[in-house]
Amino acid sequence: MTSAFSQHLSRDPLLAHQDDSQTADDGRAREQPGGEEIAAMALRKSVRVLKKMGKRVVVVAPPPSGSGVDIGRCLKLRAEG
Asked: Total domain count for the chain?
């Protein structure tokens, strides 16, 4: 699994998943606040579901950005030795 994750960490409203505990009375998904706790809970739940399906889960974070580091150049230099 990979994601930029940042969109899940803000307090901006997120559309809830189709879990019964997170749907409106009419069965439609509803908005809920985002944030670290919500994102971590959802990620743990996704990992559990995938593992129950017999999948091996690897969470990959994106490379750093905005730091002035050219990750592509670093990888190229590393490959060249």
From this structure: 1
Q: Are 6 and 63 in contact (CB under 8 A)?
A: no
Give this prediction's pTM.
Answer: 0.53
What 3-state class would DSSP assign to 33? strand
CA angle 53, 59, 63 (to 5 degrees): 155
- Find out whether 48 and 33 touch, Cβ atoms under 8 Å: no
What's 20's DSSP letter? G
Residue 65 lies in a domain: yes
What is the tens place of the pLDDT at every residue in 4-37?
Answer: 666 666 666 666 655 545 444 566 777 777 777 8
Range of the domain at 29: 6-80
